[in-house]
Amino acid sequence: MLRILIADDEPLARERLRALLPKDIVLEVVGEYGSGTEAVEAIHRDKPDVVFLDMQMPGCDGLQVVAGLAPGERPAVVFVTAHEKFAVDAFAVRAVDYVLKPFDRERLGTALERAAEYVAARRLGDLGSRIEGLLASTGAESQARARRVAVKVDGRFVFLRFEEIGWVEAADNYVVIHALAGERLMVRETLSSIEERLGQQQFTRVNRSAIVRIDQVKELQPNPQGDYSVLLRDNTRLPLSRSLRGQFEKFLS
Fold first, then answer.
1. What pTM was computed for the model?
2. What is the tally of structural domains in the chain?
3. Residue 81, domain extent
4. pLDDT above 80 for 146
5. What count of other Cβ atoms lies within 10 Å of the Cβ of residue 155?
6. 23 vs 46, residue with greater confidence
7. Rounded to whole angstroms, how far apart are CA atoms 52 and 97?
């Protein structure tokens, strides 16, 4: 079930969007609003899964609607507008899609499919956090077992102990977890969310696309350009971002 909210100052536009919503997805339109101000209030109140937002509305525009929401309460946002010029700004606030008017049923279906994937990934992350919380709350005897992360791979939950993970890299809308046993697990999650769940005691980011387990770092190698590369024990070589030079202390300790 996807709970959907529509915000557009043109009644006919709202009606058309609702009429073109796919019939093969279980969904509920929880509200339709003609101003950005009403949309913000409704999102706070009704907590929809997906919001279709016009870009220019009275009260506040679509970007201001998103800005009025805390990151943790943002639904999947799909901008639906007649203006191309706001696309860069839309994706900067992590919209899942940007649909230009006029659109057809197929284009709207694609946008809703992307939104559904976002919602599913978010629900999975919440579920994984709850599972890890249960693992951590089963008593002092289970504290060692709680030092693991639950990820969903091909429809199944995989529980990885921290010491089984060598490093993690970003891959478009996924992350790839490189296990020390040689297995590569592709997970639909962001690198930042994985980084938060792993913590910073045993893991550290070495650049914008990679996180490594600290005890898997074999060498720090200088490059001719004055930068450094991180050499892991499996001989994977990763660039160390200049902005993360402060991680030296973690490696040395």
1. 0.52
2. 2
3. 2-124
4. no
5. 5
6. 46
7. 10
